[in-house]
Amino acid sequence: MPVSLLDGIRDAGLEFFHLPAAEKLKHANRDDAGEFQPEGYGIDRVDTDGQVLDWCDRLYLTVQPEEERRMQFWPARPASLVGLLHEYALGSEQVARRVLRAMARVLGFGEGFFLGHVGEKGGTYARFTYYPPCPRPDLVYGLKPHTDNSVVTVLLLDRDVGGLQVLLRGPGPGRWVDVPVLARDELLVVVGEEMEIMSNAVFRAPTHRVVTSGRERMSLVLFYQPEPHKDLQPAEELVSEDRPAIYRRLKAKTFGDGFWDAFALGERTIDFLNIKVDDKEHGGGLVTSAPA
Ligand SMILES: O=C(O)CCC(=O)C(=O)O
Ligand SMILES: [Fe+2]
To answer: Which parts of the chain are coiled coil (predicted)?
Structure first.
């Protein structure tokens, strides 16, 4: 994608978050009764007083299938944003598809293997996240540790300000590593939990978080999810006696719905929905050495 498009959507997103609250709230993530629903502008769902809160505002939009877009949530200002997001989504989709084809090839499958499991009408959701300058970065996360609700996620990071960190797994508790500020035309692709399930944990969803700083930051992330009626399960081709299925089958919709509850609690959806097959079900065996 041309740098002008990437910078254009970055600038338009930032301009939206800089608007007066009243203007942004025209697209608020509330239904007619004032109740929380995910789509639109606001903060993520808060379920309990004890919940870890994030130092960010976000704008969450259904992008694909196109006929499911709810344009009342798409910003009227800046006027360029709708067109830019549409164009960006077309480019981002090509990136996601290329990566999914490559991931299939790596496993020795036909290129369309994962694309077939996602389906022609898979869901794409955009999340613009704005992290205001934070006076106490030592105390506050921009976004708490999580794994993504996606097969893959395509991230367009802030042009100038870092903050995204990925957890390198142990021994021990592991170590947080900074994702550097990328070149202006670079995107980052992250594996989500749905790919972890489909690949029987050959591909793992990395835990990541965003730390705050004294500088504002914005990212635009597109999550790619399977059609809701699709079964989500370890690919038969990746299951054997030596490597039994690590996850139980469930509907993509069940998984997607469970994500919001899990995210509020700061848990992985896989754990929250308890879809890991435990050792006993395999009669012990190799699953103990499979990734946690
Ligand atoms: O802001 C970022 O760099 C990452 C955001 C993120 O991880 C997410 O929206 O899931
Ligand atoms: Fe994420």
So the answer is: none
